[in-house]
Amino acid sequence: MKRYLPFFIVGTVALVTIASGTMLYRAKRLPALAIPENSTTSAMGGTEMVHVRGRADAPVTVTLVEFGDFQCPPCANLSEPINQLERDYRSRLRIIFRHFPLPNHQHAREAALASEAASLQNRFWEMHDLLYREQSVWSKAPDVRVLFSAYAGMLGLNIDRFRKDMESEQAKARVTSDEQQAITLGVRTTPTIFVNNHEVSHAYLNPAGLRGSIDAAMRARTPVSSTQ
Amino acid sequence: MNTSRFRIILYTLAAIVSLAGLADATYLTVQALTGETLVCGGSPDCFRVLGSSYARIAGIPMAAFGTLAYFGVFSFATFAAFRYARARAFFKLTVGTMFLVTLWLLYVQAFVLHAFCRYCLFSAALVFGLSAIAVLVPSSR
After folding, report:
1. Cis bond leading into A191, ω under 30°?
2. Is the CB of residue A204 less than 8 Å from the CB of residue A177?
3. Does A136 touch chain B (CB under 8 A)?
4. Is B119 an 8 Å CB contact of chain A?
5. β-pairing, A62-68 with A40-43?
6. Which of A37, A196, B15, B105 sits 20 to 30 Å CA-CA off A61?
7. How far is Cα A175 from Cα A69, in angstroms, rounded to an integer?
8. What is the model's pTM?
9. Rounded distance, CA A27 to CA B139, Å?
10. pLDDT digit string, tens, across residues B123-140
11. Residue A11 at interface with chain B, using a CB cutoff of 8 Å
12. Terminal CA-to-CA distance of chain B, rounded, Å?
């Protein structure tokens, strides 16, 4: 029996390592990074570029527009539930993200610029998800640009171009354009969410409330337009 | 304490130390594969190390090689503790290789990247501990 004991110990450790590694991988993998390319678009057009998640050619019945701030904790809390809604409703729901970096959040504007720089390499949504997911890390960091560059590297972006794009007028204009639209619409805080042009009450800014708002909009089939 | 007993104690200690290294390397491998960046509590230095080109070889995370190496050390130490003579040579060879790689990685962190990752430093400490054990363990006659 003792002869086989080392084989048993080594085999057990191998199995435990593989099992725990697999479980950790499943728990930690970023779902946003697995989004199929054809369902992730950033409609180009200078400062009019709109970040849309959902199939562009799908018969969408509901459009959800979020004015968000990457350093706002409630926005981060809603990020994954909104992604889940997009997965659940598939082609019937289109998600649009617009920037509204609040001035009291020290790194919010830089984060918005980082997402726009990623967008210029067609990775807006991946950076969007990463920024929300890592919010607790970078929001306290002394030099966020180093972290943002590291994130860009992890997303496979050209880091030199990413750094230049973060400083570019194009990225700044994109963020400013969204801010101006938010102000025009009377948005004052984040997250502010519109479902088929109707603002979702703050009491419903939770996974169940958003789902209810989307279901109601689907039943009503209100036409979509002005907030996009 | 006779030599044989001392040797068994050292190999058992080596197996326990390598388990800690195995956990550390497995964790870092998963982090590298998932893109998770919460390591080091947001320390930019850690991001500099783990996000650098030195953290991968041909696209494979360096930590994955560490996982294999630690598992090898654990296996050889376990077999050596059970008096498998050939495992002792493999143990020393693997630990020696890890020692040299660790020196290279410490050099890269100190003089190329100018940043240290605490998980890498923990692993380096474990490798130095294993190296000490490999030196201390009495050779068979």
Report:
1. yes
2. no
3. yes
4. no
5. unpaired
6. A37
7. 11
8. 0.54
9. 45
10. 999 999 999 999 998 876
11. no
12. 17
Q: Do A142 and B44 touch (CB under 8 A)?
A: yes
Q: Inform me whether the C-beta atom of residue B44 falls under 8 Å from chain A C-beta atoms.
A: yes
Strands A50-53 and A62-68: unpaired
Tell me which residue in A6, A25, A142 faces B78 most closely, judged by beta carbons.
Answer: A6
Q: How buried is residue B131: exposed, middle or buried, by Cβ count under 10 Å (0-12/13-18/19+)?
A: middle
Question: Could you tell me the CA-to-CA distances from B53 to A75, A135, A150, A158, B124 in Å, in that order?
Answer: 33, 24, 11, 13, 19
CB atoms A13 and B71 under 8 Å: yes
State both tokens at A162.
Answer: 């990413």
Region at A208 (left for phi over 0; alpha for psi -120 to 50; beta for the rest): alpha
The minimum CA-CA distance between B66 and chain A, rounded to whole Å, is 13
The reply to whether residue B51 touches residue A154, judged by beta carbons under 8 angstroms, is yes
Closest chain A residue to B56, measured at CA: A154
pLDDT tens track for B43-95: 556 766 876 778 888 878 899 999 999 999 999 999 999 988 899 999 999 99
Q: Where are the alpha helices (DSSP H) in chain B?
A: 3-34, 44-50, 62-81, 85-107, 118-136
Query: Considering only CB atoms, which chain A residues are within 8 Å of B34?
Result: 25, 28-30
Tokens of residue A221, six digits: 């089939």
Cα distances from A206 to residues A160, A201, A210, in angstroms, run 38, 10, 6
Contact state of B33 with A25 under an 8 Å Cβ cutoff: yes
d(CA B43, CA B72): 31
Q: In what side-by-side order are the strands of the sheet with A50-53?
A: A40-43, A50-53, A93-99, A62-68, A192-195, A198-199
ipTM of the complex: 0.85
- 3-class secondary structure, B129: helix
The reply to whether B30 touches chain A by the CB within 8 Å rule is yes
B51 touches A at CB < 8 Å: yes
